[in-house]
Amino acid sequence: MSLSHSFPILLPDVQIGFYYKLRNIKDLYFHEALKNTLKELKISEVDNELNRLVSNESLQKLASFSLRGEALFALPIMLQTNPFLLGYYRLLLGFSQKEFYSKGPFGIFKMMEEKGIITVKARSGINDLASSLIASADYLVEKMNHIDLAQLYELQLLTVGPQLRGSKNNEYGQIATKKVFNLLKELVKKTITNSTSTIIEIKNDAGRFVRIEFSADPDIAISEKLKMGERPLISIEIKGGKDLSNIHNRIGEAEKSHQKAKNRGYLEFLTILSVETNYQKLKEESPTTNHFFRLDQILDFNTEEHHQFKDIITSALSIR
To answer: What is the pLDDT averaged over residues 259-271?
Structure first.
């Protein structure tokens, strides 16, 4: 094997296991990309790289299962012909996008997977990238007792599944935040002086201006404008994910955000959830939170939680 190992070798998770049978897996995008790429190349050129860069033991083991080497090994010729294939091999080895592209030098190759572009800097590192991925795949082949195409698909889906769930949770979070923002707009509508899709400005009963806005950290920030500057009032964290098993991680994220807000001088801390759970138990995990609320409850004007939420907001904002 002539490629250098100047890039780190990431060990794939071979403990994932094959826990369920897949259905309708032949249309997996990256597998189709692999087949289409092979059509553009001479098999003799692919074989030359396989023989030069991959151990004979691994190739023999794959051959015993009727698999060609490029199905697992990221050859430079494959990546250069179709840069999108980096996503195929990343998924196969069990690395999430965040995990893979945030480690060592791999970030420079992200454009390959996302846009099919090899930048000048990435092109100079293609051989080292292939060397690292080949070493990872070699470790995977060594640890597996049996390999077939169905298992390769499953390894990829086991990786992409959490990514899709993460994306869906982000979508839930955005929707939930928008719902809370619209609820606040309804509660203060008689005092609004200016509003956009992300900011609401009101004039309270004391004649002072208050600003309600989408904020990355916290999700919604409410502050009062004074002559000396802004006075932080309320930090609102919204966790729209519907997966109850992950609630403790989300509460931990809310606590971190509230702590940062507290250090900036905020006075009230609200955490809004989309799942039903024990508020008292959550208080142990987010002691900074003053009040927990269920999203569906505060959106229903007939519930006790809605009235509690309304009282806290109108009191802090000094409006009737």
So the answer is: 94
140 and 173 co-located in one domain = no
Label residue 6 left, alpha or beta by phi (over 0 means left) and psi (-120 to 50 means alpha). alpha
Distance between CA atoms of residues 66 and 144, nearest Å: 15
The residue range of the domain holding 68 is 29-147
Helix and strand totals (H; E) in the chain: 14, 7
pLDDT (0 to 100) of residue 16? 37
pTM across the whole model: 0.50
Crossing angle between the packed helical segments 126-143 and 43-53, to the nearest 10 degrees: 70
Same domain for 173 and 300, yes or no, is yes
pLDDT averaged over every residue in the chain? 82
- For residues 165 and 250, the answer to whether their CB atoms sit within 8 Å is no
Do residues 145 and 111 make contact, with C-beta atoms less than 8 angstroms apart?
A: no
Q: Residue 149 has what pLDDT?
A: 63
